[in-house]
Amino acid sequence: MSRIGKRAIPIPGSVNVNIDGHLVRVAGPKGELQRTLRPEVTLLMEDNEIQVRPVDESPKARAQWGLSRTLIANMIEGVSAGFQRYLEMSGVGYRASKQGQNLVLAVGFSHPVTIQPPSGIDFEVPNPTNIIVKGYDKEAVGAVAARIRSVRPPEPYKGKGIRYQGEHILRKVGKTGKK
């Protein structure tokens, strides 16, 4: 039995959920999301809660059970509260700024790197070395944060680069001088 899949998903009052077969539409104050789930699971909605059930006991259905429950829970949380990813920059002269909706990074290249946000994603730059990626779709927020990090990933010798907040970088010693 899936411990995650067994739990019911509560629906807040500000969120509207519509289930049409395997298509789930979730609308809330932050935005609207929809997803088509696999046919190995069924959805039951009663008393402002959603229950996810596998159609049989096959390994494929059991694998999709917990995943489907988590995807729906993330959709509901996203349209009601939203998601955020925090990025930190370290390095001499590394800084970020916001020009309109775009994020402009100065990370040691001969030119600034401009990143345009997809729809539903917003950038915040509280100070020049911190970036906050906000949005209501958890996958999109994570993908944009990973794209920003890939512009200059942290390197292991000096630790310069863009990293997630709290990410630990394994440091290497480097070369030693001759004696």
List the helices and strands and how they pair.
Elements: H1 3-6, E1 9-10, E2 16-20, E3 23-27, E4 32-36, E5 41-46, E6 49-54, H2 59-80, E7 83-90, E8 95-99, E9 102-106, E10 113-115, E11 121-127, E12 130-135, H3 138-151, E13 161-164
Antiparallel strand pairs: 1-6, 2-3, 3-4, 5-6, 7-12, 7-13, 8-9, 9-10, 11-12
Count of the separate structural domains: 2
Give the topology string: H per helix, E per strand.
HEEEEEEHEEEEEEHE
Q: How would a textbook summarize the main sheet?
A: 4 strands, antiparallel
Query: Which structural category do the helix and sheet elements fall into?
Result: alpha+beta
How helical, in percent, are the residues?
Answer: 10-25%
**General shape:** elongated
CATH class of the largest domain equals: Alpha Beta
Number of strands: 13
State Rg. 21 Å
Describe this structure in words.
The protein has three helices and 13 strands, in the order H-E-E-E-E-E-E-H-E-E-E-E-E-E-H-E. With 179 residues, the protein is of the alpha+beta class. The strands form four sheets. The chain has a four-stranded antiparallel β-sheet with strand order 11-12-7-13, covered by helices on one side. The protein has a three-stranded antiparallel β-sheet with strand order 1-6-5. A three-stranded antiparallel β-sheet has the order 2-3-4, covered by helices on one side. Strand 5 and strand 6 form a beta hairpin. It is elongated and about 70 Å long. The mean pLDDT is 92.
